[in-house]
Specification:
Elements (H helix, E strand, L loop, with lengths): L4 E5 L3 H13 L3 E5 L2 H10 L4 E5 L7 H10 L8 E5 L1 H4 L7 H6 L4 E4 L4 H11 L1
Parallel strand pairs: 1-2, 1-3, 3-4, 4-5
Length: about 130
């Protein structure tokens, strides 16, 4: 596999660092963003081969960013993996299972993440 550029978008700096280190150890280049707006700006600067995207974030959540990217001809073919703790958070937030079912994300990984499981999803999508 050629060196792939993967963008990790999550408001948890520890998770971003953990996922980034795993991806870099597998030979990937990694970009980092800490909310949906930063993620959107990063995508405009450099098109990623794949996006790992958290759902519950400030400023612009992952559902909204995913929907925008999949609706845009320039970005719709970029694979998106959603990271989600929404299943546990549904009773205490405005996020719902229906929100997740309606996205066009290519796959999702529940938090807390298993980095090897995430790597399997990444390699399958690339």
């Amino acid at each position: 596999m050629d060196k792939k550029y993967i963008l990790v978008v999550d408001d948890d700096p520890d998770l971003v660092e953990t996922v980034s280190m795993m991806l870099e150890s597998k030979g990937c280049e990694v970009g980092q963003a800490y909310d949906g707006i930063e993620g959107e700006e990063s995508i405009k600067e450099r098109r990623p081969d794949l996006i790992i995207l958290d759902i519950m974030m400030p400023r612009k959540d992952g559902y909204v960013l995913c929907a925008e990217l999949k609706a845009d001809d320039k970005t719709r073919d970029i694979p998106i993996v959603l990271l989600t703790a929404v299943g546990e958070a549904v009773p205490t937030t405005t996020y719902t299972h229906a929100d997740g079912m309606s996205t066009e994300a290519d796959d999702y990984i529940a938090k807390p993440i298993d980095t090897e499981g995430l790597w399997e999803v990444v390699t399958a999508l690339l």
